[in-house]
Design brief:
Shape: globular
Order of helices and strands: HHHHHHHHHHH
Distance between the termini: 21 Å
Structural class: mainly alpha
Radius of gyration: 20 Å
């Protein structure tokens, strides 16, 4: 009886993890093969074009979601993978965006404490800086990748599939939120983005758990990435402290006040408005 109940709800386990990784790798391979064919048949290399970055992101995350849906979720539940994207009342938005911005300020302060020089961190920082520089110099492409596609795909995977699946499996919500946030940080593959991704992932997970709507963490994720993109366009940095010449300690103080105040209002007084589909 318990096994059937878990199957009907859709859980995340080792098979789900393998499906996500396999789908991601499979999507990457498909894009690489098409580019290989284009190079040797049409003498065109799309690898450094913006369209390649866009197609790669769609193929890798799309492949991961497709694999989880068709090889894990549907066989176990008898229905296709679906998510609740319901909007919520206006007051909730006034609570979650300041809370998110507060955590963004805290995350920036913590990230600034990680060294960017030295024999280990220095070389690593230069390497990842070069990778980020290769992303795209076109504002429209960066907005599409970071502000539209990334929030949608990443929230579906990390909150909609992993976190929700762990809770459905019987894991305590707090633990599931933390695990999803840590995995979210690890896939960024560098210590500077790891810290911010984990802290922001905790907020995204909390909001999803409370509202049961994936739309809200997607909007918050897009908000964070939009701020970063605008800062890059303005001064080639993602730092609010550097852009506005603000002390990192002031940034921390404002962040703590914002996050704490709106967290209390949201977490202690907010009621769940929607049942999960």
């Amino acid at each position: 009886m318990e096994e059937n109940r878990l199957k009907n709800k859709g859980i995340f386990d080792g098979y789900g993890a393998m499906a996500l990784i396999g789908g991601l790798v499979g999507g990457s391979i498909i894009v690489a093969v098409f580019n290989f064919i284009a190079m040797y048949v049409f003498k065109v290399n799309f690898q450094y074009d913006d369209i390649y970055l866009i197609i790669s992101q769609i193929a890798t995350f799309g492949g991961a979601i497709f694999a989880f849906d068709y090889f894990v979720y549907r066989p176990n539940t008898g229905r296709k993978l679906n998510f609740n994207f319901s909007p919520t009342n206006l007051m909730t938005y006034f609570l979650i965006f300041p809370m998110m911005f507060g955590m963004m300020l805290i995350a920036e302060f913590v990230t600034m404490q990680i060294p960017t020089s030295g024999p280990v961190f220095g070389e690593m920082y230069r390497y990842f800086s070069k990778l980020m520089d290769q992303m795209s110099s076109d504002p429209a492409t960066l907005i599409l990748l970071a502000v539209i596609l990334a929030p949608i795909f990443e929230e579906i995977v990390f909150r909609g599939i992993i976190m929700k699946g762990l809770i459905n499996k019987g894991m305590k919500p707090k633990k599931a939120i933390i695990i999803a946030a840590v995995v979210f940080g690890l896939v960024h593959a560098n210590p500077w983005q790891f810290v911010g991704a984990v802290l922001l992932g905790l907020v995204l997970g909390l909001v999803y758990y409370k509202t049961k709507s994936l739309l809200l963490p997607i909007l918050l994720h897009a908000f964070n990435n939009l701020i970063s993109a605008l800062l890059i366009f303005n001064g080639n940095t993602e730092s609010l402290a550097e852009t506005f010449h603000i002390s990192e300690w002031i940034l921390l103080g404002v962040g703590v006040i914002l996050f704490t105040s709106f967290y209390i209002l949201f977490a202690k007084r907010y009621r769940v408005h929607y049942a999960e589909a």
